[in-house]
Amino acid sequence: MSEQSNNIDPRLLELRDRIDEIDGDIARLISERAECALKVAEVKKATGGDALFYRPEREAQVLRKAMERNQGPLTDEEMARLFREIMSACLALEEPVKVAYLGPEGTFTQQAALKHFGNSAQCRPLAAIDEVFREVEAGAVNYGVVPVENSTEGVINHTLDNFMTSNLVICGEVELRIHQHLMISDITRADAITRIYSHAQSLAQCRKWLDSHYPNVERVAVASNAEAAKRVKGEWNAAAIAGDMAAELYGLKVLAEKIEDRPDNSTRFLIIGSQAVPASGDDKTSLMVSMRNEPGALHDLLEPFQRHKIDLTRVETRPSQSGNWTYVFFIDFVGHRDSENVAAALKEVGAGASDMKILGSYPRGVL
Ligand SMILES: O=C(O)C(=O)C[C@]1(C(=O)O)C=C[C@@H](O)C=C1
């Protein structure tokens, strides 16, 4: 026995033996679970047609159960995160899911993709939101991840506009707490910063902090936070505002942490795909409606939701691409399109609208 293990407290040795035993049990059970997933894949293949290995509604149920069952001491979120990874590995055994996200690597959208699909998914960065839509439409990937709204800065219009012309459906949502950091490279002189790079939304989310700490420094908007981090690598007088992943990916040093003006700063992302998702038991629906431009039109549009006791979670207006002074409303509400009250409300809204498109019903974000 080494000198070191001679000195170890016997209580610690005993506890570690117990942990080894438990790990053995967990490993056996995970393997058993993976065997089950393989059998599920066999059943799906035997059913024929377009076998759907990834099941968003089932995944949401598994994660919710993991949280409900949890008795501590781990938090419900930690427990669900562990199950998220187990399920991601099981799905990869069945068939790896291919996901495109708004890149480059190191963006918050990549973080959202990993949070939603786990580390066993095959994730690929694309340069623009339109490209993510296009790759999913072309079938080059199974799903796409795009940002849709930020709690400080509002909607990402580009994503909403894509839905006007796309036939893809929303299959899920992910919410991410966004922490912005000021970062520099190893050649940057921290006392000589004259330029700060970031995405326009991130610069806006840190406006007050920048006003008080770097009032005279030029703020340069670039295509993404990861792009900002990349640029800083070669510049001695520049800093970037980006998240943890970008700092790690480009080996940057964080000079100031969590500089976002609002501590509850978060971004919502959508999972887009080509197949409608059945009800999971706790779902949301997104809708796109165009209305004639008349007094009371918005009231008439929203009235059926109130009558059928449906909770609206968001109403957004965008100018229509087809004509002057017509508007398109993006509406999110609680409930699945197959449930009775939602189906009834949708029928009435559709009858009163000049156009209506259901963008999808999908499980409410669990993690
Ligand atoms: O239940 C299924 O349909 C499965 O394929 C199993 C499983 C899981 O590991 O629990 C794996 C992937 C699906 O996305 C959902 C759940």
The total number of structural domains is: 3
How much helicity do the residues have?
40-55%
Series of H and E elements = HHHHEHEHEEHEEEHHEHEHEEEHEEHE
Shape type: globular
Count of DSSP strands: 15
The mean pLDDT is 93
Summing up helix and strand content along with how strands pair, one would put the structural category as alpha/beta
- Say what the CATH topology of the largest domain is: Chorismate Mutase Domain, subunit A
What CATH architecture of the largest domain do you see?
Up-down Bundle
Q: How large is the count of helical segments?
A: 13
Percent of sequence in beta strands:
25-35%
Largest sheet, strands/sense/barrel = 6 strands, mixed
Subcellular location: Cytoplasm
InterPro entries: ACT-like_dom_sf, ACT_dom, Chor_mutase/pphenate_deHydtase, Chorismate_II_sf, CM_dom_sf, CM_II_prokaryot, G/b/e-P-prot_chorismate_mutase, Preph_deHydtase
Protein name: Bifunctional chorismate mutase/prephenate dehydratase
Pathway: Metabolic intermediate biosynthesis; prephenate biosynthesis; prephenate from chorismate: step 1/1; Amino-acid biosynthesis; L-phenylalanine biosynthesis; phenylpyruvate from prephenate: step 1/1
Chart the SSEs and their pairings.
Elements: H1 3-6, H2 10-47, H3 56-69, H4 76-94, E1 98-102, H5 108-117, E2 122-126, H6 129-138, E3 143-150, E4 154-155, H7 157-165, E5 169-177, E6 181-184, E7 195-198, H8 200-205, H9 207-213, E8 218-221, H10 225-232, E9 238-242, H11 244-249, E10 253-256, E11 266-273, E12 283-291, H12 297-307, E13 312-319, E14 327-334, H13 340-352, E15 355-363
Helix pairs in contact: 2-4, 3-4, 12-13
Bound molecules: prephenic acid.
Residues 37, 40, 53-55, 58-59, 62, 87, 90-91, 94 line the site of prephenic acid (PRE).
